[in-house]
């Protein structure tokens, strides 16, 4: 099995205008065997005044089926679940309802704010915000079992500012230890590459996670347009090899598969 991008958004997600078929054409041209979109599910969203951000999953299924008939590649069904305690059960219900190939667990919002919103960081440092974000991440991992990989652990730093992750080693260790104990994967997210601060954070994350015995890693570009598909994967692969890692994982039918890099 060959490596493929495990975190991609198409026009079925509210923040992308890229038709899924454009990605599929690129994946076929790249010689990929699989392609997946992981569309958004952020329920009762702050930025939508409490309304759901939720892709039309039935439509996603229809498009996946059509593309599987049209192209010589296996197109998969994925979802990115944004977790908050208040919507825990609704998230579980959605994941159980559909035959997803892969489920990404994410944190995008607190109970009060989207973490990208200025009000979230008002009067606080990047470190203050990151501590809260990591607390929520650990809570999500502890409580939500039906996922395959935990996404973009440095997501909030895109919006509140860069910080030295070594200052958060204890909290990061707690998150990684829980993921490892539960047998879940850690996503290395390359959305903001080649930004040097994002690359620096990735290198620290890879080093700490692997030093704790972490072996399950997924690669995701978090692409919202075709030009970002598989963005920065070469940098992650180089960092993994420096830390003695020669494989990553992908999911098909919610089953883990190892891919050599």
Describe the structure.
The structure is a single chain. This protein is α/β, with parallel strands linked by helices. It has a single domain (20-260), classed as TIM Barrel (Alpha-Beta Barrel), CATH 3.20.20.140. It is 38% helix and 18% strand. The protein contains 9 helices and 9 strands. The chain has helices at residues 20-29, 57-70, 88-97, 118-121, 126-143, 157-160, 169-182, 196-211, 233-242; strands at residues 34-42, 53-54, 74-82, 102-106, 149-150, 185-189, 217-220, 247-252, 255-260. The chain has a 7-stranded mixed sheet. β3, α3 and β4 form a beta-alpha-beta unit. α5 runs parallel beside α7 and α8 packs parallel to α9 (233-242). It is globular and about 50 Å long. It starts with 19 loop residues before the first helix and ends with a strand. The relative contact order is 0.15.
Question: In brief, what are we looking at here?
Answer:
The protein has 261 residues and is α/β, with parallel strands linked by helices.
Topology:
Layout: H1 20-29, E1 34-42, E2 53-54, H2 57-70, E3 74-82, H3 88-97, E4 102-106, H4 118-121, H5 126-143, E5 149-150, H6 157-160, H7 169-182, E6 185-189, H8 196-211, E7 217-220, H9 233-242, E8 247-252, E9 255-260
Parallel strand pairs: 1-3, 3-4, 4-5, 5-6, 6-7
Antiparallel strand pairs: 1-2, 8-9
Helix pairs in contact: 5-7, 8-9
């Amino acid at each position: 099995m060959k490596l493929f991008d495990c975190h991609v958004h198409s026009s079925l997600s509210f923040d992308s205008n890229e038709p899924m078929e454009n990605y599929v054409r690129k994946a076929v041209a790249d010689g990929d065997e699989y392609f997946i979109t992981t569309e958004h599910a952020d329920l009762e969203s702050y930025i939508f005044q409490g309304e759901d951000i939720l892709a039309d999953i039935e439509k996603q299924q229809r498009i996946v089926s059509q593309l599987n008939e049209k192209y010589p590649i296996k197109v998969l069904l994925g979802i990115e679940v944004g977790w908050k305690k208040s919507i825990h059960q609704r998230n579980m219900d959605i994941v159980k309802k559909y035959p997803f190939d892969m489920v990404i667990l994410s944190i995008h919002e607190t109970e009060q704010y989207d973490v990208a919103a200025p009000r979230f960081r008002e009067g606080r440092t990047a470190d203050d915000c990151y501590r809260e974000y990591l607390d929520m991440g650990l809570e999500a991992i502890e409580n939500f079992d039906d996922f395959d990989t935990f996404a973009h652990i440095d997501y909030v730093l895109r919006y509140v500012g860069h910080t030295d992750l070594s200052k958060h080693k204890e909290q990061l260790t707690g998150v990684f230890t829980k993921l490892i104990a539960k047998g879940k994967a850690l996503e290395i997210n390359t959305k903001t590459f080649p930004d040097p601060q994002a690359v620096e954070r990735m290198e620290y994350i890879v080093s700490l996670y692997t030093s704790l015995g972490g072996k399950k890693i997924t690669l995701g570009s978090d692409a919202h347009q075709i030009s970002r598909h598989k963005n920065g994967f070469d940098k992650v692969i180089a960092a993994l090899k420096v830390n003695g890692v020669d494989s990553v994982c992908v999911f098909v039918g919610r089953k883990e598969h190892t891919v050599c890099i």
